Amino acid sequence: MDRQVKRFNKVLVANRGEIAIRIFQACTELGIRTVAVYSEQDQASLHRFKADEAYLIGEGKGPIEAYLDIEKILEVAKRYQVDAIHPGYGFLAENAQFARRCQEEGIIFIGPTPDHIHMFGDKIEARAMAIKAGTPVIPGTIEPIQSLQEAMQFAREQGYPLIIKAALGGGGRGMRIVRSSDELEDALDRARSEAKSAFGNTAVYIEKYLERPKHIEVQIIADQYGNTVHLFERDCSVQRRHQKLVEVAPSVSLPEELRNSICNAAIQLMKEAGYCNAGTVEFLVTPEHQFYFIEVNPRVQVEHTITELITGIDIVQTQIRIAEGNALSDPEIGIDGQHEIIPNGVAIQCRVTTEDPARNFLPDTGRLLAYRSGGGFGIRLDTGNGYPGAIISPHYDSLLVKVSSWAKTYSQAAKKMHRTLREFRIRGVKTNLPFLENVVQHQDFLNGQYDTMFIECTPDLFE
Ligand code: ADP
Fold first, then answer.
1. DSSP string covering 139-199
2. What ligand 1 atom has the least distance to the C-alpha of 174?
3. Domain ATP-grasp spans what residues (predicted)?
4. Residue 134 above 80 pLDDT?
């Protein structure tokens, strides 16, 4: 393929909160001018003030709809001569139509192609691609389930427990565990109607439900010329209701051989798919060390920070350089091959949210009367709207700040995290800080002996 590098002068971030600010920082370091868009409800949000230019979008629309308004965002981008749009995560990040409309308007979408977004947005198609690439997948149905008979047939062959998943599901939603045949019909009906209302499509499929696996995911970066490398793995097993809460890079409980196999499987899959830009391949790993593909996230992830800490590679800047047309080996990126990526130390990320652990993690809202963060050597903070006087609104997700710690060893990184979490002083709104403190000093966490059911099965975390 012909090499054409087009430097960006101006980048718009079609997002809000911490990830918008994170992307502005990356752009500014690269000498790129930044453009924010913000909703009416976000007039006082920090991301608006952290960009070189900021424009109101979605007037008269809802708080979420503003950030989903493809045509309005493109209008701003064109009017202010933006070269490229970074979608962050959430909102339009996995909307193939948005990526396509950017292309049509001559604006570069900083991410994979619309076809790849489409393929990996559908878990059934993603599974088909994994099978084609020779990646182990969890035994499951190849096509969407059309009838109860098909579901029963699968259950007879594989046995229980099973998990019914929405093809277009995400964010831990659209999944239903089935433990016996008398639950199957009801679960299938509910899964389909939930899939329809949440994702606009009734397609569901069935997988064997794995008891107590670990969630291990591999960060991939690939340029437009077929060069693909991995930045090692993250262990995202500490989850609440299938949503990640604490992440660790690299995983401290994978034997070296298994780590290599998983990372190589991820590379092979993304190469087979012809994937470009940053993406993550997610796996479940059983206690017997079998690993299985679950999905690909074709975007930057919340937990990319810890991979940056252990590899020294700025993933967001790499995304931008790739979108400009650079090859991985160009000096702008400077990765000559896999051998150049050498992980150093261990990093842990905690998602500090305004959720109240004492009230079943109900999101709290209001004004931050006091906000002081922890810090110090080896601590990275990615803050959305954490400052004294900030209003925490009910409109958006409850992530307040991401705290990442880095140290030479896992135990030091965990101690550093605990010390930092304790330094925070937040008043006016409840947070999950006390719960996170319990997690990072729990013996099972410190031993690396945790799986995706750790929180559900460890009542002393709630004390
Ligand atoms: P989402 O797209 O909503 O994040 P994923 O497919 O990535 O959904 O799964 C999220 C989490 O759900 C996994 O990390 C794991 O904890 C659980 N999960 C998904 N599939 C299975 C399965 N077949 N068996 C056991 N747990 C599963």
1. SB-SS----HHHHHHHHHHH-S-EEEEETT--TT-SEEEE-SHHHHHHHHHHHHHHHHHHH
2. 3
3. 127-324
4. yes
